[in-house]
């Protein structure tokens, strides 16, 4: 007993219903999986984006690349982009809070910045701009590379920015003990 057109057996209404139910389950799974992606795309499209790279480069590199120093050029980058993880009680195994802690890793820091493996960021840059993107700007990468290439000079400690907020909180907690 074949079907009306192709000669294949007709499927019962029950089997057709099961097929429809499975199809809808698959559609729901796909929708659930794609919802976070859609939200990320919308957030990326609606975020104000990062400042123009040229503006960031000019702001970050206040000196020529050959005269980059830790306190003036590198420490602000570390505070803004790295110390979220690379600090006491941070999740990274190394601390980059002081010159003494950071200097031995100058070449590694520059290499990780050049190949953009640090700071880690796994969002696709072609999807949009994200307000929480920790990626380094070209000027920041150039400053880290110039500092490492120059032998990682310390510079003047008076050029250092104010400690990052978590450093002040930690100091307050230690003084209370």
Question: What can you see in these coordinates?
Answer:
It is a single chain. With 177 residues, this protein is mostly helical. The chain folds into two domains: 9-46; 53-176, no CATH class. Helix content is 52%, strand content 0%. It contains seven helices and no strands. It has helices at 13-46, 53-60, 70-82, 99-102, 106-114, 138-149, 165-176. α3 crosses α6 (138-149). The protein is elongated. The termini are far apart.
What characteristic shape results from the CA principal axes? elongated
Question: What kind of oligomer do you see?
Answer: single chain
Q: Helix tally?
A: 7
Major beta sheet summary:
none
Low-confidence stretches: 50-65
Mean pLDDT across every amino acid position:
77
What number of structural domains do the residues give? Answer: 2
Q: What is the helix content? A: 40-55%
The H-and-E topology, N to C, reads as: HHHHHHH
SS-based structural class?
A: mainly alpha
The end-to-end distance, rounded to whole angstroms, is: 87 Å
What portion of the residues fall into strands of 2 or more residues? under 5%
Query: What's the number of extended β-strand segments?
Result: 0
Radius of gyration: 27 Å
């Amino acid at each position: 007993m074949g079907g009306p057109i192709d000669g294949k057996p007709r499927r019962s209404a029950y089997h057709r219903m099961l097929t429809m139910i499975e199809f809808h389950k698959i559609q729901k799974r796909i929708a659930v999986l794609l919802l976070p992606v859609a939200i990320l795309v919308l957030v990326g499209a609606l975020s104000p984006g990062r400042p123009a790279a040229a503006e960031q480069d000019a702001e970050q590199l206040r000196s020529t690349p050959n005269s980059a120093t830790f306190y003036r050029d590198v420490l602000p980058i570390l505070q803004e982009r790295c110390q979220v993880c690379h600090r006491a009680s941070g999740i990274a195994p190394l601390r980059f809070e002081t010159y003494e802690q950071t200097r031995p890793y100058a070449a590694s820091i520059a290499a990780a910045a050049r190949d953009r493996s640090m700071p880690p960021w796994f969002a696709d840059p072609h999807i949009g701009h994200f307000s929480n993107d920790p990626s380094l700007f070209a000027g920041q990468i150039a400053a880290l590379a110039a500092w490492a290439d120059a032998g990682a000079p310390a510079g003047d400690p008076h050029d250092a920015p104010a400690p990052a907020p978590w450093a002040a909180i930690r100091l307050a907690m230690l003084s209370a003990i």
